[in-house]
Protein: Beta-xylanase
Organism: Cellulomonas composti
Amino acid sequence: EQSLAALGKAAGRDVGFAIDPVRLGDQEYARIAATQYDLVAAENVMKWETTEPDDGRFEFGPGDDVVRYAEATDKKVYGHNLVWHEALPAWVKSLDEDALRTAMEDHVRTQAAHWRGRVIAWDVVNEAFDDDGSRRGDSVFQQVLGDGYVEDAFRTARAADPDVDLCYNDYNLEWIGPKSDAVYAMVADFRARGVPIDCVGFQGHLPVGGVPGDLVENLERFAALGVDVRITELDVRVPTPASDGDLRRQADDFGAVFSACLEVERCRGVTTWGITDRYSWVPSVFPDEGAPLIWDAAYRPKPAFDAVVEAL
Ligand code: XIL
């Protein structure tokens, strides 16, 4: 059997998956994780509601499990994430400006310091923009602290871990348009002013047929700012039940995304948002869509597997 991780390694690209450590008890899940991937991102257990459920009370146990698993199986850990408007415990949402700034800086500092030297990168800020390119209005950080919270989070992360790569991560960023233009402008500004930023994550939650034609061009323009790029959360959802035709189109899409990453020198790799259609966030969020990953619900490799092998 071919190994995506081995092919990726030969091509100088990480092949990652979003891990739910609870699923490692599932033998097939564990087997594919062990043989097919060389990077993990925690699907949920490094998010704020898990790591700091109460003010100043940190709970790193589940995240430590992910890191230990990665170290035992020779995989990199991509840190996801430090500051996001979702997966936030209620206490964060009731703070005044000074208290929220202190809480955010404390959270970033403590979490980045805890896994210092054991993660290769952090999504320091996740999803700060709306699709129209404006700052997201439904973020408590945006509402209470204003635009400057993003820069503050990056500076705080750098102080806590001087060596880790610091990334901005978002969705609907894969093509050139108002949202990616706004993020591009922010990254350019950060680079010009010496605000520490090393990488941009393009999530890649795509509908079948949705790989933009300008993906490479878009990745290249970010790379030209002096940052690495990465596809961080790839899944390609299809209407369910999935038809054979859609699964073939999905395979083309997976192949196109991996090929795009190989074409761009500063693209470090591709992470899929899970392993198997048995466990995916998609059906819970997109009604009547699903089956977005490389292995089906019975752990059989889908056409997407061959397409990724071909691309790598
Ligand atoms: C999702 C997880 O997959 C779900 O299990 C959870 O209920 C919600 O979050 N963008 C991100 C990820 O950055 O953290 C999200 O993960 C998917 C969208």
